[in-house]
Every structure is written in C-alpha cells, then in structure tokens.
Amino acid sequence: MIEDQAKRRTVAGGAALAVTAAMLAGCGQAATPSAPGPSAERLARVVQLAAERAAISDRVAAAKFGTGKPVTDPEREAVVVADARAQADRAGVDPDWVTRVVSDQIAASTQVQNDLLRQWDEHLGSGPSERPDLAEIRPEITRISTELVTALKGAEPVRTQEDCPSALAAAVRQQAGELDPLHAAALDRALRSVCSAPTG
C-alpha cells in the first residue's frame, strides 16, 4: 500500500532530521536539544502542515506514475497561490509572505514527486502498487493551504525575530518526527521563507 511505503520512507534515520535542523538553525550551528520555547510553539503548526504536505506528495506522485502526466501544473499551482493570497488579505497576514511560503510548499512537493518518480523509473518493481485519484487528493492539499494561512498568522510575530531560525529548527525536531533524506530535504525547502522580513 502507498501509505505503508510512505511510512517506511518518513519514519527513517534521525540523522537526516538533524541535518535539516542544523540547516534551519543557520550559520552552521545545530540547535541545542532543549524544550521548545514560545517562538517554537508559534511555529509548530506551520511545521506540522509543511510535513503533512510533503507526505501527501508521495500520493500525488503515485497518481501520476506511469501516466505521462507532468509533475508541474502551472494553472493549478496559480490557483492555490491566489487562493492563499486572498485568504491572507482577509486574515490580515502579509500576503507577499504567505505567497512565498505557499510557493515553497509547492516547490517542495514538486521536489518529492520528481525524486520518487525517478526512483520508481530506475528501479523496476519499486513503484506504488496502486494509483490514487488526484481528484481525491486535491481537497486535502487545499485544506492544508487554508490551514497554513491561519498557522502563519499565529507565527507572524516570530518571523523577524533573531531567534526565528533556531526556533524553527526546534519546531522541526518536536513536530516533524524522523525523516528520510528525501522528505527532510523537502521540509527544508518548504520552510525556507518562514523566517523572513517583509519586503519593500
């Protein structure tokens, strides 16, 4: 089953997670393994949703495997970003920031899909045993994007603070569990713009 394959991939070596945490901490410093502080707590839901989005990418890849469908869908992606931006406007969250973060989520998903499809093509018999329906997966992706805007509203006071990178790393350790290298790299990509100052 696809769920079992995803579980085996996402519940793997903790070394990959440690690398991701160190990268998020910035400046080559690994965060200390302490209890999460207030900033990390504000970022926890953002990390949870990013990890969930990366995991769902396995099913999206399985839906496309062997069909010849392109990984990227610019029209669909534009709709997801536009909806998130509109929701950010309504919620009073910086829409440019939300756009960057949601775009990073999409880029991370594309990264997972490309990596998995390449692996399945290169190793015959390693592909998924069933093909999910994209129409059933997309509402889940929409739900994550919607909840992400709410989570970013809660995290917005932290984004420009000096401790944001280390707090984000702490939230990754607390919320994401142990990830294999593929999904650790995707989570790193998905969270790239979380700790960023407003533009302009």
TrEMBL record:
InterPro entries: Chorismate_II_sf, Chorismate_mutase-related, Chorismate_mutase_periplasmic, CM_dom_sf, CM_II_prokaryot. It is an enzyme of class 5 (isomerase). Pathway: Metabolic intermediate biosynthesis; prephenate biosynthesis; prephenate from chorismate: step 1/1. Coiled coil: none annotated. Keywords: Isomerase, Signal. Residues 1-30 form the signal peptide. It comes from the Bacteria. Residues 24-117 form the Chorismate mutase domain. Gene3D superfamilies: Chorismate mutase. Its EC number is 5.4.99.5. PANTHER family: CHORISMATE MUTASE, SECRETED CHORISMATE MUTASE. This is chorismate mutase.
